[in-house]
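Worked example 3 (structure in, sequence out).
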């Protein structure tokens, strides 16, 4: 048995897909991080773009579906994710480290880093790298989840996990948030614009909430091969089903949100 790691969590796209489907189907306001990033990027379709921490490549696929013609490249630490992206026609992907990007200086018109900066051991070094690979006159766009997102759901999972001696580990924690991101950006870019988007996950029945909670297990210290995983899943299933039974007609509401930071690179 091993503890959850960034590599194990993103070695397969399955849990990520459950989380993203949950956001698509159960968001209260349906704030769209992809649309917010696209608005910040101000693309004309010809730009070269690097997406750092590209995951399963759905952002790159979305760009291609919109008719983007410029070169787009994804980078991720997970070979499994990179293999998934490589199957998208028109997209390229490589395995790499955000703190030491395998790209030339000023290689891209735009650089995006979506929901990944808090998983980087040295986020300041990564921001310097994002600026380095971006052309003067271009822009870096960073998206992060709010550190307090899904706190209500995670509290239920963590209570059960702690009973087995399990706890979150650093590399999967949301260590960069609304209080720390502005200061980090000021050390690298002369100007940044930060927008905050508040939303919530809302569930009318326990089943999709349980699925989402299980997809959050790694972030709560519960590895895929943990001998306690099945018991914890059974316990949180009982917890959520009991809550809905005790609160008929009510919805489970869990606040969430994200920030979009746009940092122009001086020309």
């Amino acid at each position: 048995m091993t503890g959850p790691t960034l590599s194990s969590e993103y070695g397969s796209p399955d849990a990520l897909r459950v989380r993203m489907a949950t956001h698509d189907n159960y968001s209260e306001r349906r704030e769209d991080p992809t649309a917010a990033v696209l608005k910040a990027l101000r693309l004309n379709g010809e730009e070269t773009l690097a997406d750092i921490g590209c995951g399963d490549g759905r952002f790159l696929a979305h760009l291609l579906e919109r008719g983007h013609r410029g070169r787009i490249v994804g980078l991720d630490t997970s070979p499994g994710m990179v293999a998934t992206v490589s199957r998208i026609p028109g997209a390229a992907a490589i395995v790499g480290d955000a703190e030491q990007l395998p790209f030339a200086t000023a290689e891209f018109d735009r650089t995006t880093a979506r929901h990944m900066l808090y998983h980087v051991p040295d986020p300041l070094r990564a921001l310097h790298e994002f600026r380095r690979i971006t052309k003067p006159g271009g822009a870096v766009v960073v998206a992060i989840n709010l550190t307090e997102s899904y706190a209500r759901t995670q509290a239920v999972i963590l209570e059960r996990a702690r009973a087995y001696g399990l706890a979150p580990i650093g590399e999967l924690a949301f260590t960069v948030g609304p209080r720390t991101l502005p200061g980090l950006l000021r050390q690298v870019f002369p100007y940044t614009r930060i927008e905050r988007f508040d939303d919530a996950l809302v569930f009318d029945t326990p089943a999709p909430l349980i699925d989402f909670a299980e997809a959050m297990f790694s972030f709560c210290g519960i590895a895929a091969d943990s001998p306690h995983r099945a018991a914890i899943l059974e316990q949180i299933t009982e917890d959520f089903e009991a809550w809905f039974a005790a609160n008929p007609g009510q919805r489970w509401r869990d606040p969430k949100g994200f920030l979009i930071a746009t940092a122009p690179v001086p020309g």
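Notes: The mean pLDDT is 93. The chain is about 35% helix and 20% strand.
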